[in-house]
User: Fold this.
Amino acid sequence: MNENRIRLLQKGISLIGPIVYWMSRDQRLKDNWALNFAIELSQKHQQPIVIIFNLTDDFPVATLRAYSFMLEGLQEQQELANKLNIQFIIKIGKPEINIPSFVHQISASNLISDFDPLKIKRFWKREIAKKINIPFWEVDAHNIIPAFYVSQKQEYGSYTLRPKINKNLMIFLDEFPELEKQKNSLDLNEEAIQPDKILEGLNIDRTVPIVSEFIAGEIYAEQILFDFIENKLSRYNKFRNNPNYNVQSSLSPYLHFGQISAQKIVMELYKRNLNDENAKAFLEEIVVRRELSDNYCYYNQNYDNFQGFPIWSQHTLNEHRKDPREYTYNIEDFEQAKTHDKLWNSAQIEMFSTGKMHSYLRMYWAKKIFEWTVAPEIAQQIAIYLNDKYSLDGRDPNGYTGIAWSIGGVHDRAWFERPIFGKIRYMNLNGAAKKFDIVQYCNKYNKMDM
Ligand code: FAD
Ligand code: FO1
Assistant:
């Protein structure tokens, strides 16, 4: 495998013992470079391999909707692991406590983690590194081109990252090795994952119900992928900004939880020689925009606050702080879709009831929260809170970056000046009405009671 996907977070002392893959972001066995690296080490050292997933209920805005989806996926992966003679165990609690104690308990020789730019993950890794003294590796199994390789700095926008991606893409579209039944195994008599039983014991927000629109797991993710390629991709470029057409892939919840690999998705398009404007538009999103979000979160620790915005944007937002607002709402008004704007309320209801809001409306939704709150900092926190609480694909670099784009012009350019927005790109009902039939969209959601 391409060595540039791997980096040693801490050298440590090499011992003889099992290889541990601490699975977190990339919650799948197939098409997972972190697991493939663990298998390489286990074969090289003739040692068994163990996968551990640490479940913590203090993940930001943790809800029943998110944890149920995630646990269904993990249950499916544990069944696959057992077929491959790989132990898959789940621990509940703080990773910075459970991972070091597990490493010591089984006298592991190597610890492998998957890459994630979020602050919470980097904190977990720093704390774990202090408590272990074996080689501690990190593998970017999420991005096609590893975030720590494709660029050494925060990129201005897709136009500066795209050439670096295009230059490297082909060498990182290498075939995934087939998963085989492992020879060595370690009998830890781990319990079978029972999602309902685990959920009962978690301290999570149960007011956000499970959604039926999305069935979790890798098998279902692949079905959605093939359905998208066969039945939607040919209309993607023309209708992707129209929420009345269902041509988006709906893959984001599966990508967020790592239940499907972005690289596999791209390779499926290449395999079919799909390179028309629809494929190009989709690749721009799933490769450039998605990896640009990881770049932003990795190189800008203020990815979730006003300080992360570019200077021009902070300047223009500060200049317009005092502009009068025709409407102002608080978080309850937004959460219950009680604004004066039927389109905005319908988008909120779509997210609340299905766990996923259409891309175009996400931009409109965040920009209007900014327009109808007294300060951009408050707007950003409300948008992050509601997006993370109700979106299945929430709590993700794409979300923090999408909200920073909408409110703080991150990866965007300055537009002509106007009240409240200053030079931040403006969106309104007229703009939306030019793109799609607003009444048709609102009728679909507004009758749903909140
Ligand atoms: P498709 O159009 O089928 O795209 C395929 C994949 O490409 C997506 O799954 C995603 O991985 C990637 N992608 C598409 N658009 C973007 C984008 N603008 N930025 C980065 N990656 C993109 N995406 C999330 O995954 N989680 C979020 O919480 C999230 N919050 C957002 C909030 C706001 C305010 C905005 C403007 C965008 C947000 N996005 C988020 C990005 C984008 O809207 C979603 O990725 C997309 O709607 C997911 O639906 P899909 O998979 O059907 O999209
Ligand atoms: N990752 C973990 O390693 N352990 C968890 O308990 C966990 C909970 C969780 C809940 C909701 C959610 O959206 C993500 C969650 N993640 C967890 C992280 C996830 O796997 C992704 O790594 C990040 O959210 C995306 O960067």
